[in-house]
Structures are given as C-alpha cells and as structure tokens.
Amino acid sequence: MKIWKKFVLFSISIIAIVLSCSRYYTVKNNFLHSIENVRQQNESKHVLEKYTLENNIVKTIQEGEEVTNTKIEEYIKNLYTYMENDSEITAVYDEEYKQIYSNVSKIEGLDVKEILNQEDVNYIIKKINSKNYMLFCSYWNVDSNAIYIVNMYDITEIYEERDRQIYETLISDIVILIISAVTIFIFSIYLTKPISKLNKISKKIAKGNFEERVNIKSKDEIGELANSFNVMADEVESKIYELKKQVKQKNDFITGFSHELKTPMTAIMGYSDMLRLKKCDEDVTRKALNYIYSETKRLSNLSHKLMLLMSLTDEKIELKNIEIDKFIKKVSAKEEMSQNIKIEVKTERGKVLGDTELLECVLKNLIENARKAEPKDNKVMIIGENLENGKYRISVIDKGKGIPKEHIDRVIEEFYMIDKSRSRNSGGSGIGLSLSQKILSLHCSKINIESSVNIGTTVYFDLKQEEN
Known about the structure:
CATH topology of the largest domain: Beta-Lactamase
Radius of gyration: 56 Å
CATH superfamily of the largest domain: PAS domain
Number of strands: 12
Distance between the termini: 70 Å
Strand content: 15-25%
Number of helices: 11
Structural class: alpha+beta
Shape: rod-shaped
Largest sheet: 5 strands, antiparallel
CATH class of the largest domain: Alpha Beta
Strand order of the largest sheet: 2-1-5-4-3
CATH architecture of the largest domain: 2-Layer Sandwich
Order of helices and strands: HHEEHEEEHHHEHEEHEEHHHEE
Helix content: 55-70%
C-alpha cells in the first residue's frame, strides 16, 4: 500500500475514533443530565402527591370515619382533579398488590414489587407500550395495612431528544469525515508528490540515466532529502565517470603498451632474421644493426620508465633540501648536449624540498617533450621563480606545434599520444608525462599545461620551498 493511502486511512481512523468518543461522551452526559433533572422534578411531584393523600386519609381517621378502598379512591380522584391531573398515570395498590385505583384501564408490564422499597422513595425507568416512563413508588400504613401509590411520568421526549442528537451527530460526523477524507487525500497527494518524484528519478538513475536530478524547491525535510539525493546522484555520476575513465585508460594502456612492444620487436626480429639468413653488404648490415640497436635501446628506455612508473605507486619518498636554481642549470646543461637543442634558463635563487633523481626525471621528460614539439626557434626556455605562497614554480616553455584543447586533459595518461606516428618517429612512448605526474604527486604537486596550437606550450609545476 502506498504511503499516501496509509496516511489517509490512518488520519480518517483517528478522526473517526476521536469524533465517536467525543460525541458519545457529549450525548451521554446531556442525556444523563436531562434524566437527573426530570427525576428531581418528578420525585418532588410524587412526594407531594403522596403526603397530600396521606394527610387526607389521616384526617379522615382522626374524624372517626372508616378508611375504605372506596374512600381512598375518592380522595385520589379529588386530589388529581385539584392538581389538574399533573401526573401522567397514577395507580394505588393494597398490601396484597391488588389495584385499588388507576387513571388508566390497564398498565401492561407493571410490577409493583420491582420498584418497591420499604425504606426510601425509589424509581425505575421502564418502556411500556413503546413509551418510556419514569416510575416512582412509595407506601404508608393505614390501620396497620400498607397502601402503595405509583406515579408514572412520560419521559419519552428525553429519549427522542437523545435519539435526535445521535442521528444529527452521526450525519454531521459522516459529513466531517467525508470533508476530512477529501482534504487529507489532497494534502497527502501534495505531501507525497516530491517522494514520487524521488522514486521516479531514482528508477531512471538505476537504469543508467545518471544526469537526472530532482527539482524540488522547499526548505522542509523533503527539500533537504532532495538536496541530499542530488548530491548523492552527483557523486554517483562522478564515480561512474571516473570508473569509465579508468576502464578507458586501462584499455588505452594495454593497447598502447602492446603496440609499443610489437612495433620494435617486429623490426628487430625482421632485421635479425635477414642478417641470419642472408649475406648482406656492409651498408645494409650497418643499417640493420643500427636499427636493431636503436629499437633495443628504445625498449630498454620504455621498460625503465614502466618499472619506475610501477614502483612509484603509493611510495613514500624522503624529501631533502635542494638548491633549485643550481639544480635546474645542471640538468639543463646535460640535456642541451644530449637533446641537441638550445635551452635558455632564467631562475631565481631558492631552496625546495624534493628528491633530486625523481625531479631530474621530470625535468628531462618535459625538456624532451618540448623538443619533440619542434619549436620554431629550436629553443626551450626554463624559468624558475619564487611565489608569494611559499612555493617555487618551474616552467618549461616552447614555441612549437602546441596541443589542441581537447587533448590537454589526457596527455598525462599512460601511452596517450596526440599524433602516434610522429611521436614514435621521434622516439616517444607516451608515458613521460604520466611518469612525471606520478613523481610530482609524491611531491604534493601536479603538472599544469597551457597551450595553443601553432603558438606553443607552457608546462609548469610548483614545489614547496624550504622553511627558514
């Protein structure tokens, strides 16, 4: 059962119970109060009639007259003629419960013994001939004989009033319940509508539509739930994106690594097989051996970088103080000779915390990539400068081909190359920047790239300076 249905049923049940209890209590109290008021009035009438009749009989006895049933009947008739027959029904019985007088022909279902009390005035309520009566009975002694007088007062109107109140309250309660049900139904639908939206969106997200979001603008708990749901959806989408990215990087890594191994190995096997099976002239032999040597060296460099890349995963290194300006000049001088390119160095003095061997690997990779970009002036610039935030920035700048914007975020992935044929011709493997990124992450830093096609590229990273 849906929550809005539960809410409606629960609310209507509570309202019905509260209304029933309150109405029952009110009607019952009104009825009892009316009965008590009528009882007091009728009891006073009954006592008055009893004592009036008793006084007349005592007076007769005192005058020496004999009290007979006929005499009693006469007194009673005169009494109720004088009182304008105020009582509805009056009956008198002797001590054997034989009727002496009654102002009606017959009273069906009346038992004097049922209401007789020798000590006090008593009453009962009895339904006779579809009417409700309040009966009072009392007695007095006449010449050692008991005389009983019964007064019956019609209180049917009180019961009719009670029934009328019950009927009207029942009708009003039904109307109230109907109005309440409609109101609660509308309110519950309005209240649970955001939850239905959450349910629908969650099902869409479960089917893979991770960009779906809940648009609920409220400041209550449901609004907070919607905001939390959207935050959760953002995190899920981000995690899914990262997983897809990792899977793609893994596939690219496997594909690139396989290709990087397959190409030189095929060439090495081909040239070595040719030298093994054929007798070649000196120029062909030298060319084959040079190619085998260069490809073997390339494989050696590739394996070295891969081993270094694997060994750097989650490794803790010991950072030492480095005079960074001298370090940059030293590495640049070595690379200028081996890379066959002009390197211009502009550095400010400073000391940083780092590992010299790993940072040298980073700087070599960045200089090598700058050379491969084929700068127009055949020159690479390295700038070292102190920053105000306590860090030292190293920038490697070239005026080469540049990197398209859509590739900038991916060039640090393993084996990712923008132009694979050009990169392989220049001896590239596509893991230099990935290795540099891993090294810099151990130094709490990262590679930053700014590039424009056919204008040039600036690659920089920041290192923490030594605290004075």
